Amino acid sequence: MTLTRYDLMVIGAGAAGSSAANEAAAHGMRVGLIERDKLGGTYLNYGCDPTKALLHIASIHHQAQQAAMYGIQIPSADIDWPGIQRYVQGVIEQVRGGTPIQAREKLRQRGIEVIEGEAEFISEHEMGIGGRLYEAARIIITAGSHTITPPIRGLDHTGFLTNVDVMKLPQLPHSLAIIGGGPLGVEFAQMFRRFDVEVTLLESKPTLLEHEDSELVKLLEQVLRQEGVQIETGVTLQQAELTPQGKRLRFQDASRRQRELDVTDILLATGREPNLAPLHLEAADVRSDNNRILVDATLRTSVPHIWAAGDVIGGMRLTHVASAQGKAAARNALSHHPQNFNLQVVPWVIFTDPPWHMWEAQRSSYAPVASPIAWGVPCLRRTHAPSSMDVPQDSSSS
Ligand SMILES: Cc1cc2nc3c(=O)[nH]c(=O)nc-3n(C[C@H](O)[C@H](O)[C@H](O)COP(=O)(O)OP(=O)(O)OC[C@H]3O[C@@H](n4cnc5c(N)ncnc54)[C@H](O)[C@@H]3O)c2cc1C
Description:
By secondary structure, the protein is α/β, with parallel strands linked by helices. The protein contains 10 helices and 23 strands. Bound molecules: flavin-adenine dinucleotide (FAD).
């Protein structure tokens, strides 16, 4: 077997991997960037960018349907799903900076070689990819995450959709059960409803968005219900089965009644877990726990020359976090004095309409800043004290 050598290899070309590879290449390293699917990973191909484009288009359709209320007559606002998909692919291509071939060429010019295939560790410095052997002085694992399949009897047999399938649906479903009322579930619920799909959102916890401000959650629930989303919280999903028309979910509702829901499709928004299995981490002695790679404060794994960043290490699964971690991991991998990765302030948004802006301050000198809840304000914000800003401020100045 021939052996190819790199200064640094990065496993996974998502937000974390792309920024790690770019940072290392900018420091003159010869970088191998391994990707088994598409450059850009989840955020570009199946996550943030396409879902936000779809939400925007769904909102245009919704506004067109509401236009008469404002004195604007729009006789028909028909959904052309293939046209929408073409638009979304155009957005992806624009963000990627061209076709996959053009993007690869741009990376090559920066000193980053893209290697297509799935990486598995052979030893601490070696990786096998599609029957070829590669060796690197340093390695950064940025393999991302995938949707968790909940243990519902029959679900394997009925089949289901994930965020990956949504991007290539041949047509919109007539009706959809969305399992999971977290940020992805509520965004998908509003989006599909605004594309005229009958949507039922099912959540096992007593409330949607269980980690968020309960008052704001109530307001958002109200908006979703007004738009026609059926919401069932506190459910126990028991069984999925095929019917002549589609799929049936059997569940116990919050009042402990046995219920059935017939839909054409089921979409999982049930949380995500790191892509660890194919990596064979044990071959390199990289330690993991609870299905995530263990790293210290500098993002170093249990093996001194192997680093990890992004969804694969758990924590806040957000693109900007992954991207910042990727850059930090690359810097540390090249440095004799690794620095701690510091999550000082992390903003995040739930892109419903109205959207939901939040940030988390993990340093005591930052105080929560919030705005009063008012119906009709353009966005929902976490409210601790009356103020008008949703940006972090140093508490010493307030
Ligand atoms: C539907 C959806 C919407 C989202 N919306 C937002 C949002 O609005 N804002 C936000 O901040 N975050 C959002 N996220 C989260 C965000 O997409 C992730 O946090 C981010 O993509 C994580 O980046 P990453 O580089 O860690 O992983 P990924 O982007 O998942 O990239 C990992 C890459 O590694 C590749 N890979 C895995 N294993 C191997 C292997 N063994 N060999 C080779 N390649 C491998 C994968 O194919 C993948 O391309 C969303 C996620 C989803 C699913």
